[in-house]
Amino acid sequence: MATSADPSLDDRETESRRDPADYEIPNPQPRPQGEEEELLRIWARPRGWRIISAVNNTVVGIGYLGAAFLFFLLAGVLALLMRTQLAVPGNDFLSQELYNQIFTVHGTTMMFLFAVPAVEALGVMLLPQMLAARDLPFPRLSAFAIWAYVVGGFAFFSTIFFDLAPDGGWFMYTPLTLKEFSPGDNADFWLLGIGFIEISAIAGAVEIVVGTLKTRPPGMSLAKMPIFAWAMLIFAAMIIFAFPAVILGTMLLEIERSFGWPFFTADKGGDPLLWQHLFWFFGHPEVYIIFLPAAGLVSMIVSTMARRPLIGHDLIVVALIGTGFFSFGLWVHHMFTTGIPSLSLAFFSAASMAVAIPSGIQVFSWIATIAASKGKFRINTPSLFVLGFLFIFTIGGLTGIMVALVPVDFQVHDTYFVVAHFHYVLIGGMVFPLFATFYYWTPMVSRNPLSERVGRWVFWLMFAGFHIAFFPMHLTGLRGMPRRVWTYPEGVGWDTLNMVSTIGAYIFAAGVLVFVVDLIRRFRPVITGGSSPDNPWQAGTLEWLPSDVYSTRSIPLVTSREPLWDQPNLSKEVEEGRHFLPNAPTGERETIVTSAVDGKPQYIIRMPGPGFAHVAAAVFTAAFFLLLTVKMVTLAAACAVAAVVAFLLWSWGLDKGPGKGEVDIGGGISLPTYMSGPSSHAWWAMVVLIIVAASLYLSYVFSYLYLWVVSPQVWPDAASSALPDAVWPLASAGLVIAAAGLVLAAGRLLPPPGRKSPAVAVCLALAGVLLVAALGLNIWSHWQAGVRPAQDAYGAMVYMAAVLDGQLVLAVLFLLGVAAVRSVVGRLDRVWRVSYENAALLSWYCAAQMLVGLVLVNGFPRVAG
Amino acid sequence: MVDRRLQRPPSTTIGTILFLLWGLVIWGLQFSASYLAHTWLCRLGASAAVIDAAIAGLTVLAVALIAPLALQPDWSARLAGVRGGEADAGHLKTVARAVALLSILAAVWTGLGALMVEACVLGR
Predict the structure, then answer these.
(1) Which CATH number does A61-526 carry?
(2) A472-531 tens-digit pLDDT
(3) Which residue, of A55, A124, A448, B49, has the greatest Cβ tally within 10 A?
(4) Domain A689-864: CATH class, spelled out
(5) Could you tell me which chain B residue has the CA closest to the CA of A350?
(6) Which of A410, A669, A709 lies closest to B43 in CB terms?
């Protein structure tokens, strides 16, 4: 299969195999006139209200971070309301109902609307700069993610003002959140609101995986990648595997609430504990999803402030990977008191203790790096926040080991001890590094740094306030105060401790307020004009290269982990355009794609500029879900149509084709400007999306088998009439396989460049029809056997498989349709083929998933029964 | 213009990722299999001895699968197609080996539960 614009080159030969030391860098000649002006023109940001169409990572990143920080402030205000209510016993400052809504929205906002988006925003903003890429590989995807998040997030938060906020806790346990006990729309707002965050997080994860693996500068092998990039890569991988579980859970809960399919209702064979498994399989990795990027940021800051490379850099990479993996083996530690067998609990208790080892490796590495600086470690606001993080996070880690012990957890579960623990690890482990990041990296994006003098006040107010607020909660919890209570009786030993906690919360808030005032006074983003100070910390990594709206003037050849320390002339050479891609040879927004492991140049990616299609897609998608929540179905349908049109316009502009062929990027290298096949960034993105879909389906398979274990009595046996005759699933499987074959055939029929092939369109269209027919046949076969989705958990799971297949088939129809139309109008051929490849990949995955489903739903009861 | 048809083949991406993550992937599979086996065998009414043997077997298997990488990272790296410069490959081998050692520890720690806690007994 041809992969580059030149069909004579196969996959292996499109990659430069030369050793980076042999590149002819720096380019000896002075650069031609007008080169920089052209870069400025191509990368110019939209002005005025058109800024909403911007896709530059610096603009999107600042907006994203700003929105996340605003949610932090809003959720913080809710926390102050809670602490005010709990300051004295028997208080009626807030009603019980309002208190329930406030703690639910506080937790949901902090975890979903602040923490994950904030670290994702830092990835969007910092990663391209650290990797000297001109932007992330899919700029409109990040922009779509932020708009979906902003619209969905503010719509969700506003429910608190209308008595519509969810009130079942941020984890929304069933059966409390089923229709019987939560009849209003409150829970539905949570479920559908969280949907945006899920879409946004996964879009960001796709971007980050492909960006860190494929758009590093030449010479930056995996081993030379900055530690923050490692952290973000693992963060993104964790999102890919963890978020699907909560996506499935929210789908199941919303479907049960709306249509009565009994996934979580015990007397129909469901199990409320299934929700807990699905939620916490996501929920525990979620806290490490929040922590790992913060740890990566700390590693970068410690190294700079110690003026030396990190000690144990490779071990920190091990620790990041270890934390990522171990975090998936901990989830049941949130369920120790649910009656799960002891040996099962033991596995999770063991893993919960084991995860302390990689965290400890990082902590000792940071301490060793600071110690090895031999007194040169600079104490300033960023490093104060880092030291504060070390202290607070370590205490949180110690109480984490305590609650990892099952008998201890039996005593402290659902008490304020746990509240203290997770605030120590989350505020210590993420908020303090975030503030360190603000002070450290603001000079990269602002004309003025934040005030060092005011920063010290911010730190000490937050540090002192935090301990005064949260340390007493360990004692309050050990004295028996439960979580999520709106008040408490006088004289049980909690009064003084609660008052102290409330005072501490206000001191902490004062620190944040001082920061906000300083931010307003000092922060002037360079995206509005002007330039930022040049590398004020004398750091060694690439984000401190001189940059403008086009990022760096040229993309550097990297030979070490701290290029600015090891190549003293690098900044000057890059700014003079003497490294790679000092111009825009295709006249479009470009960056270099390099190989994932060795960092060798492969091709030039041509990226889109500002536009409105992705904004419209985000707004109408958000509107669709929100209108469904309030049961305005007709308007929701109209928004769905508008969203689909917006997605069509967006996707039509993708896959621009081979263009100019190979171009000279400097250093004696020419690269193609178009790539298809496994080296293509589009291929990688689709593979990541398929892994997400597979994780979602695996969560479904787990749920199916789990409910069978719990309620075998509602499952049919081999002789039951509830099982369709075998001919129907076999026929359905035949249709699926035929569809997959047609997609393969379409690939074989792609015409030479410049020609059209109606046969391709016919194959693709027919494949879509067969997939729909297979799905319809599958559904009908169960329906005619008398199985109904609301009858019991078995029925619900049978039709849930069809729901999951159906949503995938819809996506496949979209992609097949776009590819078919492109083949008819001559925008798809043997070389110009990315849109076909993406449609084909998803189609084959869809076929595989449908086949697995047919085997599971039709075969398993016959075998197990 | 450079002739890019030159000597050293690139490192394979999938192979390198698998090389780095091998130990933890095996640990994850051992962990999942132990949890699922315990659940399933308890449901089938198997004796504690059978369950303990199954978990012990999974633990031994996991350690056996991880150990070659921990003991012979050079050979494992060649098998996985990890190439690149000496320094780069050295760093990747360090990471992979440390991940493998950590994973062996984790696999044994997971399996030890079977020695200390009785199978199929409810937690609370």
Answers:
(1) 1.20.210.10
(2) 999 999 999 999 999 999 999 999 999 999 999 999 999 999 999 999 999 998 876 667
(3) A124
(4) mainly alpha
(5) B110
(6) A709
